[in-house]
Structure to design on (188 residues):
């Protein structure tokens, strides 16, 4: 195989793999995913926590946003109707749960009766012992606990770069091995 045809094969492989990855990354980057954020990362049972969410369906025919404990089908802690901008805020009390990590899930049904596009929104919370313990409550992470919409395209882009790098390394190694075997046969 000539050097030109090897280069063409490597570039064609990159194009065949890279173009669909770029299209998928763009599609996910354009989606408005629901996000959730809590005013604290840790709380004891019975503590009131503020919930803030964005990108929920504000259509009057859509259901209110249900703030659920530890999963899509978890106990409903609070409900709230999103503003015209898709933002929602409410408070809830942390249920009586053992210390550990849990997830707050914000679900919504769209006007068509199916889960609203981009939902659910998620935010982590750590249940700690009662406030009489020496545990310090830390502020919530600014990202709201879940990877934002930009994390997927970045991850796909990095994966594509690693794939391209691997293909290039393979091509260079093959070329070096063919050159070194060619030199060995001409010197013998």
């Amino acid at each position: 195989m000539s050097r030109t045809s090897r280069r063409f094969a490597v570039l064609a492989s990159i194009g065949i793999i890279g173009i669909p990855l770029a299209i998928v990354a763009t599609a996910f980057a354009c989606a408005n995913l629901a996000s959730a954020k809590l005013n604290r990362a840790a709380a004891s049972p019975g503590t009131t926590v503020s919930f803030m969410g964005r990108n929920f369906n504000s259509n009057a025919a859509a259901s209110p946003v249900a703030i659920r404990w530890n999963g899509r089908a978890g106990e409903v802690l609070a409900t709230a109707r999103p503003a015209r901008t898709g933002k929602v805020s409410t408070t809830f009390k942390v249920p009586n749960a053992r210390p550990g990590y849990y997830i707050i899930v914000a679900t919504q049904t769209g006007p068509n009766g199916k889960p609203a596009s981009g939902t659910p929104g998620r935010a982590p919370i750590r249940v700690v012992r009662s406030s009489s313990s020496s545990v310090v409550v830390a502020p919530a992470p600014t990202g709201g606990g879940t990877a934002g919409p930009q994390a997927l395209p970045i991850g796909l882009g990095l994966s594509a770069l690693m794939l391209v790098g691997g293909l290039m390394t393979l091509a260079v190694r093959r070329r070096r091995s063919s050159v070194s075997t060619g030199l060995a046969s001409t010197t013998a």
User: Anything to note?
Assistant: Residues 133-148 have pLDDT under 50 and may be disordered. The helical segments are 3-29, 151-187.
